[in-house]
UniProtKB/TrEMBL annotation:
Residues 292-394 form the Nuclease SbcCD subunit D C-terminal domain. Keywords: DNA recombination, DNA replication, Endonuclease, Exonuclease, Hydrolase, Nuclease. The gene is sbcD. Coiled coil: none annotated. SbcCD cleaves DNA hairpin structures. These structures can inhibit DNA replication and are intermediates in certain DNA recombination reactions. The complex acts as a 3'->5' double strand exonuclease that can open hairpins. It also has a 5' single-strand endonuclease activity. This is Nuclease SbcCD subunit D.
Length: 413
């Protein structure tokens, strides 16, 4: 059986006020072609389908149109979607009955029976091959909030999480779902798991990933996945990576760079080939980048060098939606009035979209005087004292008299 693993589409995301609809559509069109070319049996989408809990109608239309076209082009395809921390569980599941009628299973949140017990049957899904026979079982677990985990986790058998009820609850939920899957599977059928979480040792992108901290817990140990699970398809981290030394526990990463911090990522989907109940091969499939993200200069530089590099920037002409996004990186050693105007003048006529001007200074990494960081000392400081120290922190020298005079005038009642 062949699976494709993708996640973190973030449909509707904007990059510094530039919308990304064109890039997402190019990815979805490519993914449709890839599903057919790879003759995939299942597509696992591991959360953060949308960028926020209230997606636009255009973003929702993109998703549902993709799901429809995927089933049209590959009728036997299993489509499994789980919610992420950016997704609204209710909104994601709202069209569930209609989607399920066309072979798409959407799990936005953990459901409970009237007696409060978790509906495990809704989380354990059969995956069928082209002949319609069950070839694997999927533990389709969405992003778990405290109310989603078992209310009594005392029997969780994960030593790493025993001291934390939330971790113990997650471990117990996976164990209960796995136990149910083991009662269902026949010889030669694999078990795969899905999840949307931050695993221990996972590398994150600070500019575009929302930290998940619940009850002081942020990262989950790999031990929550039992050895009986052949493959774990994870979402949340935007850099494709294996978890620790567990080659079968993988993040596929986001399909497009969601911030300038991700320009160096190799964006991909993962192809997983199952041989009976085991994984035969895991291989990345590189996603073409529809729009480039440029950082000029490569490292922050003084404004003179920056303007020279911008003037020399040679970018082919292209329609607006295909023009590169640009981050300009300036190192300041003093205030630079009219900085944006000078940068825009250097870019005049060039087919790029100025998304961000990133400023830094050699002194910015320093911290304020330790006295400022204490509440009792802060109460004694006057506004101009704080202004002097912040200026020193940012620019590495004393505030000039005209700046102090302007600040004093600003503070007049």
């Amino acid at each position: 059986m062949r699976l494709l693993h993708t996640s973190d589409w973030h449909l509707g995301q904007s990059l510094h006020n530039f919308e990304r609809h064109y890039e997402h559509q190019r990815f979805l069109d490519w993914l449709l072609d890839t599903i057919v070319a790879e003759r995939a049996d299942a597509l696992l989408i591991a959360g953060d389908i949308f960028d926020n809990a209230n997606p636009s109608s255009a973003s929702q239309k993109q998703l549902y149109r993709f799901l429809q076209r995927a089933k049209e082009r590959m009728p036997h395809l299993n489509l499994v979607v789980v919610g992420g921390n950016h997704d609204s569980p209710g909104r994601l599941e709202a069209p569930g009955p209609l989607l399920e009628a066309h072979g798409t299973r959407v799990i936005g949140a953990v459901q409970r029976h009237a007696d409060g017990a978790i509906d495990l049957e809704a989380l354990v899904l059969p995956l069928t091959g082209a002949d319609g026979a069950v070839q694997a079982w999927c533990l389709a677990v969405p992003f778990l909030r405290p109310g989603d985990v078992p209310r009594k986790a005392a029997d969780a058998e994960t030593a790493d999480s025993a001291a934390d009820p939330y971790l113990a609850g997650i471990a117990l939920l996976y164990k209960q779902a796995l136990d149910l899957a083991l009662t269902k599977r026949q010889p030669g059928q694999a078990i795969v798991a899905m999840g949307h979480c931050h695993m221990v040792d996972g590398q994150m992108s600070a500019d575009s990933e929302r930290r998940i901290v619940i009850g002081g817990t942020e990262m989950l140990p790999a031990g929550i996945f039992d050895p009986a699970i052949a493959y774990a398809a994870l979402g949340h981290l935007h850099l494709a990576q294996a978890v620790g030394k567990q080659h079968h526990i993988r993040y596929c990463g986001s399909p497009i760079p969601l911030s300038f911090a991700e320009v160096g990522y190799q964006h991909q989907v993962l192809r997983i080939d199952l041989d009976g109940d085991a994984v035969r091969e895991i291989a990345p499939i590189a996603i073409p980048r529809a729009v480039q993200l440029l950082r000029v200069p490569a490292k922050p530089a003084l404004i003179g060098q920056v303007l020279e590099e911008l003037a020399a920037l040679d970018v082919p002409d292209a329609p607006t939606e295909e023009q590169p996004f640009l981050e300009v990186r300036v190192r300041l050693d003093a205030p630079e009035p009219g900085l944006r105007a000078r940068i825009e003048a250097a870019l005049d006529g060039k087919p790029v979209r100025l998304a961000k001007i990133e400023t830094s200074s050699a002194a910015r990494g320093s911290v304020l005087d330790a006295e400022v960081m204490t509440l009792d000392r802060l109460e004694q400081l006057k506004p101009d004292d704080i202004f002097r120290q912040l200026y020193q922190q940012r620019f590495g020298n004393e505030a000039p008299p005209d700046q102090l005079s302007a600040f004093a005038e600003l503070m007049l009642p």
